[in-house]
Design goal:
The protein contains ten helices and ten strands. By secondary structure, the protein is α/β, with parallel strands linked by helices. The strands form two sheets. Strands 4-1-5-10-9-6-7-8 form an eight-stranded parallel beta sheet, with helices on both faces. It has a two-stranded antiparallel ribbon with strand order 2-3. The chain starts with a strand and ends with a helix.
């Protein structure tokens, strides 16, 4: 299995995030990448590929142009104000406020964020572009005939909506890859999001489209980030009606229940009949993850990797979350191993 990766992810590493009322070291940190790479190399996933340059015209098919201009300009604007720290929003356009982009960077940050824990730094835009390029390059290999490819994206992407960032995400790598499959001739694409947190950004991008089926297994929004999307009754709108499928689950969910939801989701994918599958691979469903509440074991990741292989679809794995850092490599590679052996 080819692995697409880049050291450019290191350009994005905020010093802190807001958690529990404190500024803490971010859970989404560079060593996540290091542990995954270490485990890949230990287990023989050594077909490593550098990404091509990002195709921003394709990125613009799933992200708003003004939003992309904001991401590119955010740090220079922040720096021009002379602010000493990293760029974090302080005000958001809540209910009954005007939905209009301000001129000042402090207002722009609030206008474009969906969660205020995520900081923008000097290297964020470069890292986000590189992460999108990793997804695009992996998609190209799958479109070219590879059975499965792993795009080791960092920063992750599935919380990034058409015009919103947050949840550690800036550009939606899975959505960019799905659009790439369509641009390269696929008639239909499925996205399976197995991250603990609902892929609200991916849902937002494809909610009114029928050429991409979105299936998400996640902690129920009553209890889990991002809280305001991910309910089972969100099934798509307009042309996208019935092409959005959510499986929210309660605290303490173990593989028995989670695996049943996976089987149901895989059946929906089979019934849909896609030409390619994108897996938003978050391993924060792990029992020891510090910011999640599912109870999957490391062996469970191996099991469901094999289950995904039974779909017999050209498959691109795009890295999302997973914050039990010392085990993230084991759990990620177990999914890939299960898939490769299935």
């Amino acid at each position: 299995m080819k692995v697409v990766r880049s050291q450019d992810h290191r350009k994005h590493f905020p010093k802190g995030e807001l958690f529990g009322g404190q500024l803490v070291r971010p859970f989404e940190c560079p060593e996540r990448w290091d542990y995954i790479v270490m485990r890949l190399e230990e287990t023989g996933f050594n077909d490593v590929v550098d990404p091509d340059q990002p195709d921003m015209e394709r990125v613009a098919k799933v992200h708003d142009a003004a939003y992309m201009r904001f991401l590119e300009a955010a740090w220079p604007l922040w720096e021009a104000e002379g602010f000493p720290g990293e760029a974090l929003p302080t005000v958001v356009p809540a209910r009954r406020m005007r939905q209009r982009e301000p001129d000042h960077i402090d207002g722009k940050l609030g206008y474009y964020c969906m969660a205020i824990e995520t900081a923008i730094t000097a290297g964020t835009w470069q890292a986000a572009r590189a992460s999108a390029a990793i997804a695009q390059t992996g998609q190209k290999f799958v479109s070219g005939g590879e059975k499965g490819v792993f795009s080791l994206c960092r920063p992750p992407g599935h919380h990034a909506a058409r015009d919103l960032y947050g949840g550690y995400c800036f550009l939606n790598n899975a959505a960019i890859a799905a659009q790439g499959f369509l641009d390269d001739g696929a008639g239909r694409v499925a996205i399976l999001d197995v991250d603990f947190h609902h892929g609200n950004g991916t849902q937002d991008i494809f909610y009114e489209r029928s050429d991409v089926l979105f299936v998400s297994l996640h902690g129920r929004p009553e209890d889990a980030f991002p809280h305001f999307l991910g309910y089972a009754d969100e099934t798509g709108a307009g042309a996208g009606e019935a092409y959005n499928v959510n499986y929210p689950m309660a605290p303490g969910t173990r593989y028995g229940e989670w695996g049943e939801a996976l089987e149901q989701g895989c059946q929906r994918i089979t019934d849909y009949g896609p030409d390619a599958l994108v897996v938003s691979l978050g391993v924060d469903t792990y029992e020891k993850d510090p910011i999640s509440f599912f109870k999957l074991t490391s062996d469970d990741f191996l099991t469901y990797g094999g289950h995904l292989a039974k779909l017999e679809l050209p498959t691109l794995f795009v890295m999302e979350g997973g914050y039990a850092v010392e085990e993230i490599g084991i759990n990620t590679v177990n999914v890939l191993t299960g898939f490769a052996g299935g």
